[in-house]
Amino acid sequence: MKIRTGFDIAFTLSQPTPMILMLSVHPSRIDDVLTPHAIGFDPPLEARTYRDGFGNICHRIIAPPGQLTIAADFTVEDSGEPDPVVPDARQIPVQDLPDDVLIFLLGSRYCDTDKLSQTAWSLFGGTPEGWARVQAIVDYTHERIRFDYQRADATRSAHDAFMQREGVCRDFAHLAITLCRCMNIPARYATGYLGDIGVPKDPAPMDFSAWFEVFLEGPEGPRWYTFDARHNRPRIGRIVMARGRDATDCAISTNFGYAHLARFDVHTDEAS
User: pLDDT 10s digit of each residue in the chain, 272 long?
Assistant: First the structure.
């Protein structure tokens, strides 16, 4: 399957503003990109690329005063297979986890485990460990939060989402991640493209999507598995851009000064 995807984003700025952009395809999917996916800037400017501590590709720029347009359009090859479902994947005891996975058991900016630990154990302490426990958490989160694109809140934490019972895809991910971590299941945040491929078209505006991954022992050994608490079903055509502890580590733009978002268009469609 071929997927055409990209974005057209515009900021209005009153002064030169340093920015970090996380708009590239993740290194794990670079080999699947079939056409150039370089990020274009209007007006043209110099961007320096680096990889952060989680391996994500980042661009550093100094945005000039006025309107800055950032855009890309490219095609990616995808297997066309839905997210794997492995009911027999088991939970790994904390003492047996790899060192670099332990950070995904800890609380973070949006995943306030200290506020939800008791709740998590009361809700899921009696569920079977492993895949079944993660799925129980996904089912609960899917039912607990009402999706409302108009109610997005950049300051909403997992506990806030639990209490307010509304949010967008990042809030579903944050709550599920937090509940997993409370149950000693490593969980990390992921963001990228997810088009309406193989499912009815979503009436909400197209946006970058957020989901999460958990570290379990499957038939082929320990690995990260994809879960999606908002949609709660295996999906086709995920193209990951960034992974981290939560949305802080995966922000598409970090501005060191005020930048007004003037336009935000994302497209992800199966190519003929």
Answer: 999 999 999 999 999 999 999 999 999 999 999 999 899 999 999 999 999 999 999 999 999 999 999 999 999 999 999 999 999 999 999 999 999 999 999 999 999 999 999 999 999 999 999 999 999 999 999 999 999 877 888 899 999 999 999 999 999 999 999 999 999 999 999 999 999 999 998 877 788 999 999 999 999 999 999 999 999 999 999 999 999 999 999 999 999 999 999 999 999 999 87
Residue type, 58: C
Residue that the structure tokens 């088991």 belong to: 90
Q: Provide the whole-model pTM.
A: 0.96
Which DSSP string do the residues of 96-162 spell out, in sequence order? GS-GGGGGGGS--SS--HHHHHHHHHHHHTTSPSTHHHHHHHHHHHHHH-EE-GGG--TT--HHHHH
